[in-house]
Amino acid sequence: MKLTILGCSGSIPGSATPASGYLVESGGVRILLDLGNGTLGTLQRFADPFAADALLLSHLHPDHCADFGALTVLRRYHPDPPYAPGERRLSVFGPEEAPDRLAALYAPSSAERAATDLSDVFDFRSVPESPVRIGPFEITAFPVEHICPSWGFRVAAEGRVLAYTGDTGPCGGLTGLAADVDVLLSEASWQDSPDRPDGLHLSGKQAAEVAERGSVGRLLLTHLQPWADSAAILAEARASTSAPVELVSAGETYEV
């Protein structure tokens, strides 16, 4: 199973990296975990966007879904698509309000929003309550704590397991999400401090504590905000777990 970082900046794109988005591949099947600002550009360096088999949205903040509008334009208006219109609609798993919210993102005006139906190119589905199979992948969603409905995803294939936290504060859902995974791709938006708001994001230390409790094989830190001290976040994470810890960067690829 291969993980490619399409973008890893938290809250907004950074000067050198898009926001959150990740490509996971196994056995010729490609799934996308989030598609934030700028990630569609990076994706085109590694795979044909038409070749994606599914998109899973952890939540609907722009830094995790903004490039869905650009993907809609590509799938609707590319002059030479690899298949006929209406064929191979992309499966999109997200919150229940995703079809309406994403139509509003794409619609050219509020007057046209109600008439915007994206079902010609997308097959919308709610985040599954039980594990779902996509090719060789078995994907399990775990509700996590954020300021809107949010999920982390546990992705298993080839006898390996990747867990992705999405955006979350410390919560019980992270226990099952991270248990005994080979790689934990965890947000670490800021340095640890008692002044941080509850239920919003993880610090580097908190992400490492999740990894330590879960006995994960490797911790990859993502979603660092552009104004954050990434070296300090990495240092506090490494001090709080025995697992190897790295900061990811856009365009990097990892074997899970």
UniProtKB/TrEMBL annotation:
<feature type="domain" description="Metallo-beta-lactamase">
    <location>
        <begin position="18"/>
        <end position="205"/>
    </location>
</feature>
<dbReference type="InterPro" id="IPR036866">
    <property type="entry name" value="RibonucZ/Hydroxyglut_hydro"/>
</dbReference>
<protein>
    <submittedName>
        <fullName>Ribonuclease BN, tRNA processing enzyme</fullName>
    </submittedName>
</protein>
<dbReference type="InterPro" id="IPR001279">
    <property type="entry name" value="Metallo-B-lactamas"/>
</dbReference>
<dbReference type="GO" id="GO:0042781">
    <property type="term" value="F:3'-tRNA processing endoribonuclease activity"/>
</dbReference>
<dbReference type="Pfam" id="PF12706">
    <property type="entry name" value="Lactamase_B_2"/>
</dbReference>
